[in-house]
Amino acid sequence: MTVPLTLVATLLAKTGSEAELEQTLQDLQGLSRVEADCIQYDFHRDAEQARTFHMIEQWRDESALTAHEATSHFQAALPIIERTTEKFSVTKMYRVS
Q1: Range 40-74 burial, b when 16+ CB lie within 10 A, else e
Q2: How confident is the model over 22-73, as pLDDT tens digits?
Q3: How many domains is the chain built from?
Q4: Report field, pTM of the whole predicted structure over 0.85
Q5: Which domain holds residue 70?
């Protein structure tokens, strides 16, 4: 049985780049949600730190995430994310119970 992979990405926007990063992540969310192996793809702004965004994603498995990262929409968003982000972290996990 395949266990879905959950990913939480946390991005801190550079000062002055919040709107551009937010729009890029919103666009990426819409395109990612229609991928066949996407189970969940939610975009959040941190309640206490306005420049911080969180992506909560769930993929069928690790290979589905790899396929997502190779899509044209992810590859197009990546340079914008890199340019507008001060700090970026990704946590991958599998549900235990």
Answers
A1: ebebeeeeeeebbbebebbbbeeebbebbeeeeeb
A2: 999 999 999 999 999 999 999 999 999 999 999 999 999 999 999 999 999 9
A3: 1
A4: yes
A5: 5-94
